[in-house]
Amino acid sequence: GQQLNQSPQSMFIQEGEDVSMNCTSSSIFNTWLWYKQDPGEGPVLLIALYKAGELTSNGRLTAQFGITRKDSFLNISASIPSDVGIYFCAGQHYSGAGSYQLTFGKGTKLSVIP
Amino acid sequence: GAVVSQHPSRVICKSGTSVKIECRSLDFQATTMFWYRQFPKQSLMLMATSNEGSKATYEQGVEKDKFLINHASLTLSTLTVTSAHPEDSSFYICSAKAHYEQYFGPGTRLTVT
After folding, report:
1. Contact A42 B43 (CB under 8 A)
2. Percent of chain A, pLDDT > 90?
C-alpha cells in the first residue's frame, strides 16, 4: 500500500525561528495536503498542492509539491506559540471506482519555546 | 467555507451498547465522506469511504457489521458502533470531500466502559 515517511517526528524550536518538515514516498500522488491538528481536535487543512513543482504560501506557511510527485515540504517562518501542534502531510491517490483516498504521514509534533 | 461538524464531541457508553456519531457538511454538499480512527499519538487510520446513496467501502480489517455507515444525504453521514467494547474506545474523525480537498470534523471521543 501507499506509505508516507514524514520527518522529523518532533521538533523543539525557539519562538521566531523558521521550521521545515517534509514527507517522502515511493509512490506518486496527484495531490499533497498539509494539515495541523491540535489536541482533541480534527485536522485543519493548511495548504493544498495540485501540480508537481507547485509552490504555495498561506501567510507564514509555504509548501511545495516535489517535481517527482513523491515528496513535499512545509516551511513555517517566524514561528509563534500558537504554531504548536501536530502537522500531518497527506498524499491523495486514486483508489479505484471513482474514489480518491488520503494516505497520512505519521505527523511532526512541533513545540515552540517562548 | 468547507465546514464539517460532528456530534457528539464526546460520548461514554457501556459495553454492549451501540453509539451513533453524526457527520455533517455544513456549507457544501459532499458525495464522499470518510471515517477515520485515531489512537493516541498516532496518525489517522482510514476505516471506510462513504458514498451518498450507496454502500460504504471498508478498509481491510474493519468489520462492516460492527461499524455501520449510512450516507443518506449529501450533507450527512453516520457511523454506528454496534455492541461496543472497551477496545473500541478511540477518537473517531469524519471528513468530507469538497472539490479536490478533504475537510475534517472536530472528532468524537468515544469511551466504552
Report:
1. no
2. 86
